[in-house]
């Protein structure tokens, strides 16, 4: 049992790390807040205080609405593909077959590919309408190639990001699936339950917590997707998300004030989503 002295000693040892982490977080946030209240650009040495004008400008910018919509579509699209695909692949990998270890390694391999490299591979080797694998396959069966990144830019990015995150979802869901007791499955079979009934009434409820964790972790990272957009489509109204829009404002327009206001808006929106997801996770863990 910890004494008062040991608790005080533990707090004293933890204090430097906590203080350093707090400073690491609060200083950039405070500077961003301050810059967001200034008319601060790379092309003007004067930085007058303008209050909330940058926020008004950013929130009323038509690009913000499209970027916000693209962010939601990107996150929801990737989550839909990875959760459903992860469940199906986990069910397949849970079966006994020859070469199971090798197949599992191959399924998990895309998660270790850097986002920039993955985007380049998909852009040049898969989705290129002339010599890409998908284009040549469609030409071979008589459908005709598709210029994915031009005709369907946001869908293309969703496919690329989902390909990267599908192994992660599969790994978490497979781990949860393997913890399911075989006795439950055998009891369901003895009661006359078929494979579909067993899946919906035993397997899927057992995987509920793992699915919730996958959604939470992936959402946090999907809100900051940037490299895939930069490498493939280069942005634009049809594919830019909030991080890409903010980066474009500061890199192309040199408007630090508006970009800082956009960063604060993005942080607020991300925290709203995170709070909702954390509560969802908490309820599922308590269930």
UniProtKB/TrEMBL annotation:
Q: Where in the cell is it found?
A: Cell membrane
Q: Write down a Pfam family by its short name.
A: BPD_transp_1
Alphabetical GO CC annotations of the entry are: plasma membrane
Q: What does the organism's lineage look like at the top? A: Bacteria, Pseudomonadati, Pseudomonadota, Alphaproteobacteria, Hyphomicrobiales
What species is this protein from? Aureimonas endophytica
On the tree of life, the source organism's domain of life is Bacteria
Keywords (alphabetical) are: Cell membrane, Membrane, Transmembrane, Transmembrane helix, Transport
Cited InterPro entries: MetI-like, MetI-like_sf
List all membrane-crossing ranges: 12-35, 72-93, 105-122, 154-177, 210-231, 261-281
User: What start and end residues bound the annotated signal peptide?
Assistant: none
Mode of membrane association: Multi-pass membrane protein
Q: Which residues form the ABC transmembrane type-1 domain?
A: 68-277
Q: Which Gene3D superfamilies match?
A: MetI-like
In terms of CDD domains, this protein maps to: TM_PBP2
Q: Which family does it belong to?
A: Belongs to the binding-protein-dependent transport system permease family.
Known PANTHER family for this protein?
BLR7065 PROTEIN, INTEGRAL MEMBRANE SUGAR TRANSPORT PROTEIN
- Write the protein's name: Sugar ABC transporter permease
Q: Which SUPFAM superfamilies match?
A: MetI-like
Q: Name one GO biological process term.
A: transmembrane transport
């Amino acid at each position: 049992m910890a004494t008062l002295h040991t608790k005080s000693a533990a707090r004293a040892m933890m204090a430097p790390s906590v203080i350093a982490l707090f400073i690491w977080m609060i200083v950039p946030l405070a500077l961003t807040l301050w810059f967001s209240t200034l008319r601060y650009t790379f092309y003007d040495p004067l930085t007058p205080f303008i209050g909330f004008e940058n926020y008004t400008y950013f929130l009323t910018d038509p690009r913000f609405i499209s970027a916000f919509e693209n962010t939601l579509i990107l996150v929801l699209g990737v989550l839909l593909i990875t959760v459903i695909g992860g469940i199906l692949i986990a069910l397949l990998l849970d079966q006994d077959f020859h070469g199971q270890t090798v197949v599992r390694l191959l399924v998990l391999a895309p998660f270790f590919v850097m986002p920039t490299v993955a985007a380049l591979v998909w852009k040049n080797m898969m989705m290129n309408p002339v010599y890409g694998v998908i284009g040549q396959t469609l030409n071979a069966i008589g459908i005709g190639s598709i210029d994915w990144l031009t005709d369907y830019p946001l869908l293309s990015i969703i496919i690329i990001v989902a390909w990267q995150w599908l192994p992660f979802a599969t790994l978490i869901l497979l781990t949860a699936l393997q913890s399911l007791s075989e006795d439950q499955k055998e009891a369901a079979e003895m009661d006359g339950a078929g494979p579909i009934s067993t899946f919906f009434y035993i397997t899927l409820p057992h995987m509920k917590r793992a699915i919730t964790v996958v959604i939470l972790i992936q959402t946090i990272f999907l809100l900051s997707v940037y490299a895939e957009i930069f490498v493939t489509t280069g942005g634009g109204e049809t594919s830019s998300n909030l991080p890409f829009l903010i980066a474009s404002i500061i890199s192309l327009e040199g408007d630090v004030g508006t970009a800082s206001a956009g960063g604060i808006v993005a942080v607020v929106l991300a925290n709203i989503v995170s709070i909702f997801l954390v509560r969802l996770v908490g309820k599922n863990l308590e269930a």
